[in-house]
Write a structure and sequence with these properties.
8 helices, three-stranded antiparallel sheet
Amino acid sequence: MKFLILQNRGYESKHNMSCWNQEEYIGVGAASHSYLDGTRYSNTVNLEEYINNIKLKEFDKNITIHEKQNEEDMKNEYMLLNLRKIEGVCIKEFKGKFGENPIIKFNLILNKLVKEGLLEIDGDYIKLTDKGLDLANLVWEEFV
């Protein structure tokens, strides 16, 4: 059973694609979530508490930090998330974002997964094979 989104141009989930491309977003309001500068955080779910903290100008009391990524975390996550897309990881985009070639950075992992028939390098893309689509969780685990 395949759980990846089959992407027909123009019909992709904009929200999922934004998350998978590590785009930043700011959530506004109680229970909202944000991702900025490699940090994921959320606002309190309690509406009264949220409003009271704003009235008292104690904005930080509304925020719970869930994750602070370093650059290595961001690179690993980028690979994992972009391998959720049918087209896979664009080598040129990875280089543009991180200044490093993912084929060199992840050489050992990629060689292993290519030998196992789970990944292929197709032009400027690293993507799951048909077998890799069926066993995608095994591929993603390599980048966790």
